[in-house]
Amino acid sequence: MLPFFGGIQVIHTPGHTAGHVSLYLRQSKTLIAGDSMYSVDGKLMGLHVPTALDPEMAQRSLKKYADYEITSVICYHGGVSTQDIQAQIGAL
Length: 92
What we know:
Blueprint: E1 8-12, E2 21-25, E3 30-34, E4 38-40, E5 43-46, H1 55-63, E6 72-75, E7 79-81, H2 85-90
Parallel strand pairs: 3-6
Antiparallel strand pairs: 1-2, 2-3, 4-5, 6-7
């Protein structure tokens, strides 16, 4: 846990690359998903298989997000998603 902004949890989310990490900002309940998934018009689309180094590992990494209370997700490709995030994460 990094002691900034109310606590930042580093989540090891390999698959896109071996060392990929996502960041969970506890205070704002925001997930910075990086390249672990992408979104289109606010809908989380899951992993982008053509660019995943290890798609099976990447899919397992997405399941880790269910352990966090997330209200918004920032994807490096697609921007911010805020609608029904817990349900969207559950469907990945």
